[in-house]
Design a protein that fits this description.
The structure holds three protein chains of three kinds. By secondary structure, chain A is mainly alpha-helical. In chain A, about 70% of the residues lie in helices and about 5% in strands. In chain A, the strands form two sheets. In chain A, strands 1-2-3 form a three-stranded antiparallel β-sheet. A two-stranded antiparallel ribbon of chain A has the order 4-5. Chain B is mostly helical. Chain B has helices at about 1-30, 35-40, 50-60, 75, 80-85, 100-135, 140-155, 160-175, 190-200, 205-220, 220-230, 235-255, 265-270, 275-285, 290-320. The chains are: A mainly alpha, B mainly alpha, C alpha/beta. Chains A and C meet through helix 14, helix 15 and helix 18 of A and helix 15, strand 18, helix 16 and helix 18 of C.
Chain lengths: ~475, ~325, ~675
């Protein structure tokens, strides 16, 4: 096995590192903890964070790439498969490999299209053929299917619940009676589960509204995952697509693409927006003029057109230099990264303008003037005084942008200027599926799954963004200061 | 006021030059004309002669930015950049790859775009503001909370879903209107109803929520308390005092998009087969027709700048404090 | 007075208003207001006085509600009225004006429209009749050229004018009770005097009652008939004005009086109240003032005192007066409350000049037209000269907008002066390169007005204090720096343990101490104090003034003290410069300028200050307001508002005239004989 680190993988892990460092940094400083404690008190915020972290988990597993070693060696050297797989692919290898011939509806045992088949009597029949994998264990699907599906779903849900109970119990045992005064719930949802154990008794847990909501959410999610996992072992839970791939697998794979677009784009544009916005606001004069000119030019071009133009150009470059890439995955990945870069370039102007305005306000603050009276250098004023006091704006806009970017990916891929057609994403799924709208009976499941997964992801992101904004916006938290 | 407008138009010129430089860099520096010729001609016919001929036909056989061979002003003007950009400032966009005059194409396609975009914009504005006012009036109650929750859900749904779902339900299941197409005159109405409806529904979540935030911000201000202390009823407070003041932030976001309505909507037009500028652009993108894309980029920037100027002018209408100087 | 026989108009009994989370903002308040009387609610910020007023109007913010109590206006049960009937009361029987007239008027409606709205609702006047009545009302509140003003928007009016419009709007419904919530707090003394006079005149004409809310004892002295003193949600004392000023009973009230700076005590420290008002969510058990009270004993900390009468019409909520003979004891307390003090004599000997400023100018260009060329100058500071000797305090006094803050910042080179000379300890500062200027920075530092804006919320106290030392390379090694920090905190009276805290954990007064420590960290010789106490409550203001005074004696500091508060200036300063529209119009020692003012402007400024001990002194009222520095009047800048203006005043700006060796004035009145 040869590990492969794609560009976007590297950036994702860089982001995770930055995130962990930020958590560590914030934990040292009680005044930075304050707004996060407000986030931690919001039930909706914490539940959506839980959902988001599940998505994140899938995305992370899907970002650990490798190339499997082929069994035969040439000249004593190991030969690696040209196909790049991820740890996630390995985990759900069943889903990935059990492809049917073509479309099949969710939880069925038959193919979508009729085929000519040879009946036992030698006659040629035209009927719906049985699926190769979906419901293959059933002798007579027409009679047994409903019962079997229900049984498997119930068993799976029960299994999920059992795991949930065991997990909670394990957490209780490992953190006996450690009480922490409503400390920061970590940025990933799992530690919120850990936290519940720090309360001495179940009764105490139930008093905490947020904790209760999170516990109930984990319960539901555990049952759901259990049921789906159990069903997926024998059926195509969300059906199959045109070439017989499992739609559930495709939907799960799309998550990584969405996350990359939503986060890496931000990572790319943040330094520009932050640096330029703050510099323009603080330094004024010609620096301000130049920066304002740059962002007015960029924002005056309709963003879809700018993205389209840039993507078209990128496409040409990539096609002209096919030899740069070792594998198809690497090429698709570079295309994804370029898309992030382009989206970043077109979307930093809004944040930049916002930061410039805020800095203009801050530079008139008396503490800045006090620093100037000491002759503190501009660079130091920018980093010590201005930057920490605009971070809440950056954070709010980053979490707000995330969902917009995930939605934008789908639209851009549909328009033809999105990700590489071979990259599995919500946009490519929708694009492929919408051509089949006209069929009768309609092939609805691929569309529905893509939209469904996207809705859950974006909704969770939006709700979390709201919780963050409510906690960080100084205008919304004024009363707390007064009282 | 006039001096202000003249100054603003004056300022727009360097920005448009910047836009042109940027697109020029994208189209001609990242990919040399040779690359483009090779792409366009396909792999088989690619001979140096063919490339030269292709370039000559389209005027790409000149230096990019500075022509050292020419003399005088020709050093600047006899270049691809000058030739391709200068004409844009008089709205001469040249010809598309299939040999049509882009300017004429834009003129004929503007109307269908507007037929969808303008009603969508107007109806949308009324619907969003009314919905937001309703939520503001019942702020803090279950109705408001449900409204906000609905908004968040609606804004989390992909725009593609509204279009695909709308087409499926309204046209395919109920057969109320044709799935796609366009026609002039009264007969054309049946074609535009659904796109407009979907356009309005598409941003009801985000827009209503934004307006609600603006209204709530206004309603917390001191002058509202004064009005209440006068004995003004809550409804009158909302309509006579809050709405008028809220117009200022609302206009910032709204007026700037009015000129851009001419550009149409990429998605709606391509899904519904409307022969407007949006579908024109999307076709050009798919056909990799750089001439058209460049023209649309330029047109878009001009309209955006017009929008910014209009925004400033509109402030003088609603805010007595603003005098443009 | 006749009030005693007037019928009671407003009865408030046991009013309790609380936050949704349970904190009681207004706690069991009862009072009566008689017809035609002015009832003042006096208290420091956060004591619940504004919330009391909003409770009466039933206009509380969403997060606050009335829990219990009864409010009766003319026998109508206000708290039981349905909302529709309540709307009739608001603006009809009860009207209200607010602290910030600039924010309280709708910015996009004309003055006429806003007044007409009230007329339509309560007088059923419309169209021409309403317009005529609007003009009448504007005339009544003293707005010149009322017919034209009707069509103007609030932004076209000055602050004083806006408050007049607010009053006109309140009068439109012919209310029987006017609630005025800090109506003059944001105003200069001259404008404040005008507005208070207007309120008194209006009351006399219409016979309405006024509930006035204020933190300013001076305002109380001018307008009150009855006074209720509020502290942390309670009324702790109620009395007529005469009783209160003669015999304040509650220790808190006594302290408030003692904390006021004034000439009589200018050599002694002020009687500051230690600590600050308790936060609402953490109200002490027992008497709420007990933690800050120097007469408190165990009972005070355990049991809340009951309301006790101490003489006719005077009542108090204090254990001192419960039971027998309280009255006499209270009286004794009144004098005992003053902190005995040793006289700090200030050496009058002239020491060396530390700061010498001559002809300082700060002009801001006004740009206009297509090419944005400069068409004029705002002369914010227009030829200011002053000098400050080592160890002395020079006060710079004037109305807001006169250029005093700009002067302070220009001295520090925070704003680049246009012309002039600033010599500090013998070195010229103007025109210095950034590197050389930095060397001089340690000598001169600034303390700002707003303690909430002057500390970076994201930095710990230690980081805040060290910033200057690091920038100016003072105390290079860590140990020395640490020791220095401890000394600084001791000097400003903060515990050494506070060093790792963040600004949001401190109260306003403590923040101002940190700001002073920050300036002291680089061992400056001169502190520029820009209204350092104007954002603080009286009791805390006294703490800071005492601190500044003792620091001066300890460290031989010089101060440039920028203020509009003449009482504070009188207490702290040695010399005074009075500024008007960018220029100094009178200068001299404190005694000369504040006791024998020569310039008509100084005289007017002084007489406009409401004083608790100077009733009966004739007021010189200033007409109009400070003109814009964009377009100052020809000749003497002050002549349009001056009662002594002569022809020559309109023609030429007066030169300096020496009254004594230290006293000088720019006025034509003195020019001839003595020039």
């Amino acid at each position: 096995m040869m590990p492969v680190i794609l560009w976007t993988d590297a950036l994702i892990f860089l982001l995770i590192t930055v995130g962990i460092t930020a958590v560590w940094y914030i934990r040292q400083r009680p005044h930075l903890m304050l707004p996060w404690q407000r986030v931690a008190r919001s039930s909706v915020g914490m539940v959506s964070l839980l959902v988001l972290s599940l998505f994140l988990l899938v995305g992370l597993l899907d970002s650990l790439h490798f190339r499997a070693a082929l069994p035969e060696k040439s000249n004593g050297q190991t030969v690696y498969s040209p196909e790049v797989l991820s740890v996630f692919d390995k985990l759900v290898s069943g889903l990935r490999s059990r492809t049917e011939k073509t479309y099949s509806a969710p939880l069925t045992a038959y193919l979508y299209a009729k085929e000519s088949m040879e009946a036992p009597g030698g006659k040629i029949l035209r009927d719906y053929p049985r699926l190769k994998y979906g419901g293959a264990h059933l002798a007579d699907p027409q009679r047994e299917l409903v019962g079997d599906v229900a049984k498997r779903a119930l068993l799976g849900a029960a299994g999920g619940l059992l795991v949930w109970v065991l997990l909670i119990a394990a957490v209780f045992v490992s953190f006996p009676r450690r009480r922490e005064s409503s400390g920061l719930i970590g940025l990933d949802g799992r530690s919120s589960k850990l936290r519940c154990a720090r309360f001495p008794a179940c009764a105490g847990m139930m008093e905490n509204k947020t904790l209760r909501a999170v516990l109930i959410a984990t319960l539901i999610i555990a049952a759901l995952i259990g049921a789906i996992a159990n069903l997926a072992a024998a059926y195509h839970v969300l059906g199959t697509d045109k070439v017989g791939q499992d739609v559930l697998y495709l939907s799960l794979k799309s998550i990584r693409t969405g996350l990359v677009i939503g986060t890496v784009t931000t990572l790319v544009m943040l330094p520009f927006a932050l640096l330029l916005g703050v510099a323009a606001g603080y330094l004024r004069g010609w620096v301000d003029d130049v920066i304002q000119y740059i962002y007015t030019v960029l924002s005056s071009i309709p963003s879809v057109l700018l993205i389209a133009a840039a993507v078209l150009m990128m496409q040409v470059v990539i096609e002209m230099h096919a030899d740069w890439f070792e594998t198809a995955a690497a090429r698709a990945d570079v295309r994804l990264l370029c898309l992030c870069l382009i989206l970043g370039v077109t979307s930093w102007t809004g944040l930049c303008r916002l930061l410039r305005g805020e800095t203009l306000k801050l530079r008139e603050m008396e503490y800045i003037q006090a620093a100037q009276a000491f002759g503190v250098s501009s660079l130091r004023i920018l980093t010590r005084h201005i930057l920490p006091n605009v971070m809440h704006i950056v954070l709010i806009s980053v979490v707000m942008d995330f969902s917009a970017l995930v939605l934008a990916e789908a639209v851009l891929s549909y328009v033809g200027v999105g990700v590489d057609p071979t990259t599995i994403s919500f946009g490519t799924m929708i694009n492929a599926a919408r051509l089949e709208m006209g069929r009768d009976p309609m092939v609805w499941w691929a569309l529905a799954s893509a939209f469904g997964f996207m809705l859950v992801l974006v909704l969770a992101a939006n709700l979390f963004a709201d919780a963050v904004r409510d906690a960080f916006d100084p205008r919304l938290n004024r009363t707390e200061g007064v009282a | 006021m006039i001096a202000y407008l003249i100054r603003r138009i004056f300022y727009a010129i360097p920005i448009l030059i910047g836009v042109n430089l940027l697109t020029f860099a994208l189209f001609f520096v990242v990919n040399t004309p040779d690359d483009m010729a090779r792409m366009q001609l396909g792999i088989k016919r690619v001979t140096p002669d063919a490339i030269e001929k292709w370039k000559q036909q389209r005027g790409y056989d000149k230096p990019l930015l500075i022509n050292s061979a020419a003399s005088g002003a020709g050093k600047i003007t006899d270049t691809i950049f000058w030739q391709k950009s200068a004409s844009m400032f008089v709205f001469d966009f040249g010809y598309s790859d299939d040999g049509r005059n882009i300017s004429r194409e834009i003129q004929t396609r503007m109307m269908p775009s507007l037929a969808i975009a303008l009603p969508t914009f107007l109806i949308g504005l009324v619907v969003y503001v009314s919905f937001a006012l309703l939520m503001t009036l019942f702020r803090g109650t279950a109705l408001d909370i449900a409204g906000v929750a609905l908004c968040v859900v609606l804004m989390s749904v992909s725009g593609l879903f509204y279009i695909i779902g709308g087409q499926f339900v309204v046209s395919k299941l109920w057969h109320l209107v044709p799935i796609s197409g366009y026609g002039g005159g009264m007969g054309g109405i049946k074609f535009v109803v659904l796109p407009i409806l979907i356009g309005v529904a598409g941003s009801i979540g985000s827009s209503s929520r934004w307006y609600r935030t603006i209204f709530l911000e206004e309603i917390g201000k001191d002058y509202v308390r004064t009005a209440r202390a006068k004995g003004v009823s809550e409804l009158a407070v909302l309509f006579r005092h809050v709405l008028k003041n809220a117009m200022i932030p609302i206009l910032t976001g709204v007026v700037v998009v009015i000129p851009l309505l001419f550009m149409g909507s990429l998605l709606t037009e391509s899904f519904f087969g409307i022969p407007g500028l949006g579908s024109y652009t999307i076709d050009a993108i798919n056909a990799q027709d750089f001439g058209v894309v460049r023209a649309m980029v330029f047109l878009g920037s001009v309209l955006y700048i017009v929008g910014l100027i209009l925004t400033d002018v509109s402030y003088t209408v609603v805010d007595p404090r603003v005098r443009l100087q | 007075m006749t009030q005693s026989i007037s019928p009671v108009l407003l009865k408030v009994d046991g009013l309790v208003t609380r936050l949704r989370n349970g904190a009681r903002i207004v706690d069991d308040i009862s009072f009566r207001i008689k017809q035609g009387e002015t009832f003042v609610l006096l208290g420091e910020s956060g004591c619940g006085k504004s919330m009391t007023a909003l409770s009466l109007m039933r206009l509380l913010p969403d997060s606050i509600h009335i829990e219990s109590g009864a409010v009766r206006l003319d026998e109508a049960d206000i708290l039981a009225l349905p909302e529709r009937a309540m709307r009739e009361v608001r603006g009809g029987k009860m009207a209200m004006i607010f602290q910030e007239p600039g924010l309280s008027l709708n910015p996009v409606m004309t003055v006429g429209e806003q007044i007409a709205e009230a007329l339509e609702l309560h007088q059923q006047l419309r169209g021409a009749a309403a317009r005529a009545r609007c003009v009448e009302l504007l005339d009544q509140v003293g707005i010149p050229d009322a017919a034209r003003r009707l069509h103007e928007y609030p932004f076209q009016l000055s602050g004083g004018m806006k408050q007049r419009v607010m009053i006109a709007m309140a009068l439109a419904g012919q209310p029987v009770l006017l609630i005025a919530d800090e109506p003059t707090t944001a105003m200069d003394v001259t404008i404040q005097a005008q507005v208070l006079q207007l309120l008194r005149d209006t009351q006399q004409k219409s016979g309405m009652s006024i509930l006035l809310i204020t933190h300013d004892l001076g305002v109380v002295a001018q307008v009150a008939h009855q006074v209720a003193v509020m502290y942390a949600g309670h009324i702790v004392e109620q009395a007529t004005r005469e009783q209160l000023f003669l015999h304040p009973a509650h220790p808190y009230t006594q302290k408030l009086f003692a904390a006021l700076p004034d000439t009589a005590r200018s050599g002694q420290p002020l009687a500051a109240i230690p600590g600050s008002v308790p936060p609402l969510h953490d109200i002490p058990k027992g008497c709420r003032f007990a933690p800050r009270c120097d007469k408190a004993w165990e009972l005070c900390h355990e049991q809340a005192p009951e309301w006790t009468g101490v003489g006719e019409g005077q009542g108090v909520r204090c254990h001192l007066y419960e039971g027998q003979g309280a009255k006499a004891e209270g009286r004794v307390m009144g004098t005992e409350g003053m902190v005995p003090s040793t006289q700090h004599s200030v050496p009058i000997t002239q020491s060396s000049v530390l700061l010498q400023v001559s002809d300082l100018q700060v002009h801001f260009p006004i740009r206009k037209g297509i090419l944005q060329h400069t068409v004029g100058q705002v002369k914010a500071v227009d030829g200011v000269s002053l000098e400050i000797p080592q160890g002395r305090t020079l006060a710079l006094v004037g109305e807001s907008g006169c250029g005093k803050t700009t002067t302070g910042k220009a001295l520090l080179q925070l704003i680049r002066p246009t012309a002039g000379s600033v010599r500090f300890a013998g070195n010229e500062l103007i025109g210095l390169k950034a590197q050389k200027l930095r060397k001089q920075r340690a000598g001169m530092q600034m303390v700002f007005q707003d303690p909430y804006a002057s500390l970076n919320p994201k930095m710990r106290v230690a980081e805040i204090l060290e910033e200057g030392m690091a920038a100016l390379n003072i105390d290079g090694n860590n140990a020395a720096r640490k020791a220095h920090l401890d000394i600084l905190l001791d000097q400003v009276g903060l515990a050494r343990s506070t060093i790792w805290r963040y600004p949001h954990e401190f109260s306003g007064g403590q923040r101002q101490r940190i700001a002073i420590a920050r300036a002291l960290a680089v061992s400056p010789k001169l502190l520029i104090c820009d209204e350092p106490t104007s954002a603080l409550d009286v009791s805390v203001q006294a703490q800071i003034l005492n601190l500044l005074k003792s620091l001066q004696q300890e460290l031989n500091l010089s101060y440039l003290f920028i203020s509009h508060n003449l009482a504070v200036v009188e207490y702290l300063a040695h010399e005074v410069c009075v500024m008007y529209l960018g220029r100094i119009v009178e200068r001299g020692t404190v005694e000369e300028v504040l006791h024998t003012p020569r310039h008509p402007y100084t005289q007017a400024l002084l007489s406009a200050v409401p004083r608790i001990d100077k009733r009966g002194v004739e007021m010189i009222r200033l007409a109009g307001e400070l003109p814009s520095p964009v377009n100052p009047p020809q000749g003497c800048h002050f002549h349009p508002r001056c009662t002594h203006a002569m022809a020559v005043c309109r023609a030429a700006y007066p030169d300096a005239t020496g009254i004594s060796t230290t006293h000088g004035v720019h006025c034509h009145l003195y020019g001839d004989g003595l020039g």
